[in-house]
Specification:
The structure is a homodimer.
Chain A: E1 2-8, E2 14-20, E3 23-29, E4 41-47, H1 57-68, E5 72-76, H2 88-102, H3 108-134, E6 139-148, H4 149-158, E7 162-168, H5 175-180, E8 188-193, H6 201-210, E9 216-221, H7 231-244
Helix pairs in contact in A: 2-3, 3-4
Amino acid sequence: MRFTSEQRLDDGVLEREFTLGEIPGTLWTPGSAGSSGAAPVPLILMAHNNGLPKAEPRLVARARYTAACGYAVASIDAAGCGDRPRTAAEEQARAELRRAMRAGEPVDEIFESFIGPLVEKAAPDWRTALDALLALPEIGGPVGYSGWTAVGIRLAATEPRIAAAGLFAGGYVPRAQREEARQVTVPLLLLLQWDDEGNPRQRALDLFDAFGAKEKTLHANLGGHTGTPWFELEDGNRFFDRHLK
Amino acid sequence: MRFTSEQRLDDGVLEREFTLGEIPGTLWTPGSAGSSGAAPVPLILMAHNNGLPKAEPRLVARARYTAACGYAVASIDAAGCGDRPRTAAEEQARAELRRAMRAGEPVDEIFESFIGPLVEKAAPDWRTALDALLALPEIGGPVGYSGWTAVGIRLAATEPRIAAAGLFAGGYVPRAQREEARQVTVPLLLLLQWDDEGNPRQRALDLFDAFGAKEKTLHANLGGHTGTPWFELEDGNRFFDRHLK
């Protein structure tokens, strides 16, 4: 893991860009982390739904706020995600998706053929990043996950170091992850935009129902796909406080 | 309004029993409230679903905790509720309900004939209590409502002094209130026990959908009818903090 740049933000949070082989990442740590005598802080992996870039401003705002609350927060552009190179097939699937959405055609099968393989490809990069991040002296366990539901399900179901997950029900969840949801037993907070234009509400409710966790909480709000109220970020951090601190 | 007894609790909260004509009530106020120079505190009306008594331990625990967070909290046994006298018809409806539940028969129509009139009868007592409580010098506006969904809908739809409502989707909501939900436009937090044995989940989701409020939030958890996690009480108070303080 190689740090390539860093900046100290107004609230003391240290924001560092890193590369890990081909994986570009960003790490945010609280002001006190890493100073002599400071205890290691818990880690939250933060991913945008459907592989959107780690530099997307809404993700960056969430990460900075969460770091200021006492967490190390990391995001990566996993394989096929963000600005990482795409295969011809991936480019074609994206173009086909845009075309179908413009034409008002059903997009489920296109999403399945596009997001399904993307999750398979992205999850190992998140695991690689997790290994490297936990080796840093300023970061301890336990580990939380926040954001992209499909990758969160894959990681929470297969990666015992994930202790709690906050998921955003605002993206396509491939059939494989809808099945895997039953194997997710860590505490969960699922965030649903009740009037999300592009994501069927019933599918999110069915997903919440399917999770195998004994402690699972659903929060639903109005405001459309991108209208999640700010207080949900505070609620999300309190959820992590209960399970990671 | 006549105070008949009072006790000071360990956390400084003052718990007072009162009567208001035929209405018995309890008022909890924070330790500082009423002392010279202290600002009036906002009020939360707290009611148990289906007219259960104000002395019920779970309601008392919620009220005490909420008062310690800086609210005046009041509960009453409204007409037909708690230990108030019941008409022969009410007694018969309750007996019929118990019989039908034991026999595993459908209980919707019995609930409708029992809870529908109870809401009509109870709401005016809550309004009478509200008038009297707001006349106390230690209590100011704005006013929140917490608990019994059907009475909360009636009050929030018809009483402009109610500024926010936290409702528990764990009791029968009469048809009249399911209609009135569209007229509820104050900020709402609806609490749903996902695996509530006696209350159909879909009905609660439909009710949430029906509310006319622009800011409405649904929280769902596991744990059965009485298993609401304690952190929901904290979340509920933060919801009131956003709208009443």
